[in-house]
Amino acid sequence: QVDLVESGGGLVQTGASLRLSCGASGRTGSRRAMGWFRQAPGKEREFVARIWWSTGGTAYADSVKGRVTMSRSNDKNTVFLQMDNLKPEDTATYYCAAGITTILSASTDARGYTYWGRGTQVTVSS
To answer: What percent of the chain has pLDDT over 70?
Structure first.
């Protein structure tokens, strides 16, 4: 079991920045990947970013590439999502996820992640 708790969401204006955090506890040593996903009202959950745990390699959705950076703390218990130049279309609930059976080639697919946090709301006003 891996427990995840997100924080850092809020209401900001277009062009602002936010840094989301996700604290992990439990069987964290079993992780293959950590990801951030988001879901806007009436839309499906979509991939935002992920870190492949063994290498630290990152991947990003085209919609956020260049504006978002995913990183992890030195003790590897927290992952971050730095979001800059936020746009109204970034408005969504952001979820942190941990994958223990994730396949690298499918690491942008939410189905490859086993554990999920409850989410943190990000609202960007125009």
So the answer is: 100
